[in-house]
Write a structure and sequence with these properties.
This protein is of the alpha/beta class and 299 residues long. The chain folds into two domains: 2-183, Pyruvate-ferredoxin Oxidoreductase, domain 3; 223-295, Alpha-Beta Plaits, CATH 3.30.70.20. It is built from nine helices and ten strands. The chain has helices spanning 14-27, 103-109, 130-142, 147-158, 163-179, 207-210, 245-249, 275-279, 290-298, and strands spanning 2-9, 31-37, 46-54, 69-72, 94-99, 115-120, 231-235, 255-257, 263-265, 285-289. The strands form three sheets. It has a six-stranded mixed β-sheet, with helices on both faces. A two-stranded antiparallel sheet has the order 7-10. The protein starts with a strand and ends with a helix. GO terms for molecular function: 4 iron, 4 sulfur cluster binding; metal ion binding; oxidoreductase activity, acting on the aldehyde or oxo group of donors, iron-sulfur protein as acceptor.
Amino acid sequence: MYRIRFHGRGGQGIKTASRILGSALFIEGFEVQDAPRYGAERRGAPIFAYVRADRVPIHERGVIHQPDLLVVADETLLAISTGQVLEGVAENSVVLILSGRPQSWWERHLACRGRMIVLESSRWTNGVPAGAVCAGAAAALLGTVSPRALIAAVEQELGDHDPAVVRRNRDAILKAYDAVGSLRGVVTAGVEQTSAPDWVEVPLDAVAIGAPVIHGGPTSQLVKTGLWRTHRPVIDSKKCHRCLKCRALCPENVITAAEDGLPVIDYDHCKGCLVCAASCPLKAIRVIPEAQAGKEQDA
């Protein structure tokens, strides 16, 4: 069985990538599962999706913990420990990374047990989602999907979109497929991991015991949603007139006022929606990439 796991951010086409790959494998005669995993997160939040494919009925269910192919559409996720991107990667796993850095850089800086393959993101600059590029490359690495099946899968999954969008995604997928053509079939199918279940007797509890009870405090404060952010709003104290319009319009209520009236952003929970920057009448809030913010802090 092939087990493929995609990691990316909301808005990068990760769910669509898994569906395109799953549909292409189905067209090639495989039994397939494909599913995204995310909750109420917004654009920019870390998400993942997975695909299983086998020639026989699939009895496994749930998240893939030991992928044969791991696809990383956003390299910034590798620096977030809570993302658990490399979870379950073994020596026989293949790790595909879409990155602006060369493979030699990743080999020096990333401790990865599996075989690493880096696809240069600079080759795709026409606005095609990263997920589409990764779907094409993943199909080639599996070695079981033909370009014909990929084209049919794109038409099936994106058929309701504008023809120009379908054509742009199809061309990007085929280009990525060809880009790793020399590595076609490098992914090997994993062994069966399912086993007979252990039966557990669940007694019927009284209503007072069985009803849901919340014992903890405001646990949402412990969830660092700032990890979803790809761009950071930065307030210029010299331009700011302390009107606090940004505070009033912040949908997450992460902007407070200091004693001198200057707005302060809670970066642990700011999701980077940038409503504050768009609404500031004096343009006193600039927007910088999160990677640049980290470099400025280090300096």
